[in-house]
């Protein structure tokens, strides 16, 4: 009888120890333990990807080296199950990429990675003040447009986006919607290189006109209100309006033509269903616009190698350690 009681007690102790040991493990409650991700050729996106991946590793996942491919391919790869997630959903400009890849049937938007971004058209303040330019539609005047004519073809050069980016389509649409086809041309290419050229021209005292968005280093160099100003637009217009209204495109009471943006994580829906810990982690991580602008500037100034950006991410985690650890603990609880 005593031996039987002893066996029961020992069995209970061993079971309890096993439960405690299991609960302390970092192995996720998942069907997929390896995570594949990608970001675009805009290398700033590797910063937030590293921040997210460092947490996933702490949660017990194996994370493959992120791929670097174009946005449309990222969405299709996630929908097909070739990637698990990406940090590159820009709301609302990436809605078409999202839907063309299968929409909510295959993908899911998660969390708010970077809130309160903005986008629109900017010109140097000196030119704005001298010629009283406040609205992009003033560029219908050929004499105003010529102020920004870099290649001397009679049209203003508007620095725009990389081919294939959603903002490229929006800019093309707005040039037509505002009746600017005869006086403004969309100069597209490698966005960062085009901006460096614009900064050089600005330093030489020339007038500049460009599409700007945050988070990005441009606002850390050419500061709105000091060096450059936002241009208003005559009305809100996009190729696909959806639920966007003028209220969504206002900044300090002025219509700047583009919605205030949020950067979110997007992931394969089946992966999220099988990985509640990863999903909860995606919901929690948040990086401020100011931090993203600062990182973008560090990259622009030469700290642009993969090892540099990984170090930046590790430094960011260390500087936000208490918050980061709380996020991790909350995510682990999703396994229960």
Give an overview in words.
This protein is α/β, with parallel strands linked by helices and 336 residues long. The protein has helices spanning 2-24, 45-58, 71-79, 95-100, 125-131, 142-145, 166-177, 191-203, 218-221, 269-274, 276-284, 289-300, 306-319, 321-332; strands spanning 34-35, 38-39, 62-63, 67-68, 85-91, 107-124, 156-159, 184-187, 209-214, 228-230, 250-251, 254-255, 261-268. The strands form 5 sheets. Strands 5, 6, 9, 10 and 13 form a 5-stranded antiparallel beta sheet that branches. Strands 1-3 form a two-stranded parallel ribbon. Strand 11 (250-251) and strand 12 form a beta hairpin. The protein starts with a helix and ends with a helix. The model is unreliable at 1-32 (pLDDT under 50).
H-E order:
HEEHEEHEHEHHEHEHEHEEEEHHHHH
* Helix amount: 40-55%
Strand content: 15-25%
Q: Quick check: average pLDDT?
A: 88
**Spatial shape:** globular
Cα-atom radius of gyration? 24 Å
Instruction: Assign the structural class, choosing from mainly alpha, mainly beta, alpha/beta, alpha+beta, or little secondary structure.
Output: alpha/beta
Q: Gap between N and C termini, in Å?
A: 37 Å
Largest sheet: 5 strands, antiparallel
Number of strands: 13
Specify the number of helices.
14
Q: Low-confidence segments, ≥5 residues, pLDDT <50?
A: 1-32
């Amino acid at each position: 009888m005593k031996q039987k009681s002893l066996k029961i007690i020992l069995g209970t102790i061993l079971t309890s120890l096993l439960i405690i040991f299991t609960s302390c493990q970092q192995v996720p409650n998942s069907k997929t333990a390896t995570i594949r991700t990608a970001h675009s050729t805009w290398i700033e996106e590797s910063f937030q990807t590293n921040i997210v991946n460092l947490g996933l590793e702490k949660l017990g996942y194996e994370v493959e080296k992120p791929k670097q491919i174009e946005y449309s391919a990222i969405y299709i790869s996630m929908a097909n199950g070739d990637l698990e997630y990406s940090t590159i959903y820009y709301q609302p400009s990436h809605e078409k990429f999202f839907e063309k890849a299968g929409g909510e049937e295959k993908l899911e938007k998660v969390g708010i990675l970077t809130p309160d971004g903005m986008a629109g058209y900017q010109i140097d303040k000196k030119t704005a003040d001298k010629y009283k330019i406040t609205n992009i539609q003033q560029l219908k005047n050929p004499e105003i447009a010529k102020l920004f004519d870099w290649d001397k073809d009679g049209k203003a050069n508007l620095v725009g986006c990389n081919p294939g980016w959603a903002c490229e389509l929006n800019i093309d649409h707005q040039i037509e919607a505002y009746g600017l086809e005869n006086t403004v041309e969309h100069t597209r290419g490698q966005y960062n290189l085009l901006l460096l050229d614009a900064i050089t021209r600005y330093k030489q005292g020339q007038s500049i006109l460009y599409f700007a968005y945050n988070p990005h280093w441009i606002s850390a160099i050419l500061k709105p209100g000091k060096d450059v100003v936002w241009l208003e637009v005559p009305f809100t217009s996009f190729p696909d309006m959806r639920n966007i209204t003028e209220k969504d495109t206002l900044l300090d009471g002025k219509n700047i033509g583009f919605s205030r943006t949020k950067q979110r994580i997007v992931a394969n829906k089946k992966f999220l269903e099988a990985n509640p810990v990863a999903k909860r982690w995606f919901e929690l991580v948040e990086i401020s616009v100011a931090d993203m602008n600062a990182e973008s500037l560090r990259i622009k100034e030469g700290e642009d190698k993969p090892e540099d950006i990984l170090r930046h991410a590790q430094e960011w985690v260390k500087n936000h350690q208490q918050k980061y650890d709380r996020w991790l603990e909350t995510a682990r609880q999703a396994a229960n």
